[in-house]
């Protein structure tokens, strides 16, 4: 159990900085013999305090943003995604994980190489609605690499500055994760003993990660996210396919 707390602390920091914390906590839960579906649900529910603390530390960057629209997108997308997962066996998602990570990492890297940049005014354009809804749906459905995915989307949309994009990422992640609490709790999939321990680590890690954001060069952090995503995709290609 001490190891589980340590992995969740690291996951909280990673979620605040880049996303992908579930890839640290999910293997830890599976190692305890918890069924894959319950492991996914438990990790998703436990991540909520970490997202909340991380967003709280960076919330000032989203004060002038379209909060009401983002709230609807995050809650509805996350709730529907969780409902979709309940209908399936989570182990079947293993083979999709490396492909999803590879796709979003390459998408984000491509945007970084664009001469047009990946920052702009903090405006929720019409085409942003389905993209951010899809990201929130994925957050409720599985959530691995969610931060990388949302950063790629906000970068492609040039929606705000780098720190504002991080705030959007954390806000939508917090809402999508919060929506899963209701769905997964009612479905009986949550392993509460491990989940409460994970939540403590996520909470502390998220607060620490949010503080580190202010001290890290935005461009360096962006490329770190790409490297992190590519490394994870390679690891899971080897693990699930070989």
List keywords for this structure.
single chain; 242 residues; mainly alpha; globular
Structure description:
The model has no long low-confidence stretch (mean pLDDT 86). The chain has helices spanning 2-17, 22-31, 36-46, 48-56, 67-86, 97-113, 128-141, 146-156, 162-187, 192-213, 218-241. The protein contains 11 helices and no strands. With 242 residues, it is mostly helical. α5 packs parallel to α9 (162-187), α7 runs antiparallel to α8 and α8 crosses α9.
Secondary structure layout:
Blueprint: H1 2-17, H2 22-31, H3 36-46, H4 48-56, H5 67-86, H6 97-113, H7 128-141, H8 146-156, H9 162-187, H10 192-213, H11 218-241
Helix pairs in contact: 1-2, 1-4, 1-10, 2-3, 3-9, 3-10, 4-9, 4-10, 5-7, 5-9, 6-8, 6-11, 7-8, 7-9, 8-9
Quick description:
The two termini are 29 Å apart. With 242 residues, this protein is mainly α.
Terminal-residue CA separation: 29 Å
N-to-C SSE string, H for helix and E for strand: HHHHHHHHHHH
Give the uncertain stretches in residue-range form: none
Q: State the helicity in percent bands.
A: over 70%
Biggest sheet overview: none
**What is the rounded Rg?**
16 Å
Give the beta-strand count: 0
* Mean model confidence by pLDDT: 86
Structural class assignment: mainly alpha
In oligomeric terms, what are we looking at? single chain
Q: Which band does the percent of strand residues land in?
A: under 5%
How many H/I helices?
Answer: 11
């Amino acid at each position: 159990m001490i190891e589980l707390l340590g992995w969740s602390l690291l996951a909280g920091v990673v979620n605040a900085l880049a996303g992908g914390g579930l890839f640290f906590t999910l293997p830890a839960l599976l190692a305890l013999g918890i069924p894959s579906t319950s492991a996914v649900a438990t990790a998703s529910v436990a991540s909520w305090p970490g997202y909340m603390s991380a967003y709280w530390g960076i919330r000032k960057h989203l004060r002038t943003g379209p909060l009401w629209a983002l709230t609807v997108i995050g809650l509805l997308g996350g709730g529907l995604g969780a409902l979709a997962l309940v209908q399936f066996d989570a182990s079947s998602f293993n083979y999709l994980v490396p492909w999803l990570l590879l796709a979003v990492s390459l998408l984000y890297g491509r945007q970084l190489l664009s001469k047009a940049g990946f920052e702009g005014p903090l405006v929720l354009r019409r085409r942003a609605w389905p993209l951010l809804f899809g990201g929130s749906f994925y957050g409720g459905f599985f959530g691995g690499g969610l931060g990388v995915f949302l950063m790629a989307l906000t970068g492609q949309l040039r929606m705000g500055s780098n720190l504002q994009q991080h705030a959007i990422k954390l806000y939508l992640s917090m809402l999508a994760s919060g929506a899963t609490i209701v769905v997964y709790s009612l479905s009986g999939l949550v392993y509460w003993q491990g989940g409460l321990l994970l939540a403590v680590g996520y909470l502390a890690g998220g607060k620490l990660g949010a503080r580190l954001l202010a001290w890290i060069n935005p461009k360096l952090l962006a490329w770190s996210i790409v490297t992190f995503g590519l490394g994870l995709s390679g690891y899971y290609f080897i693990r699930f396919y070989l």
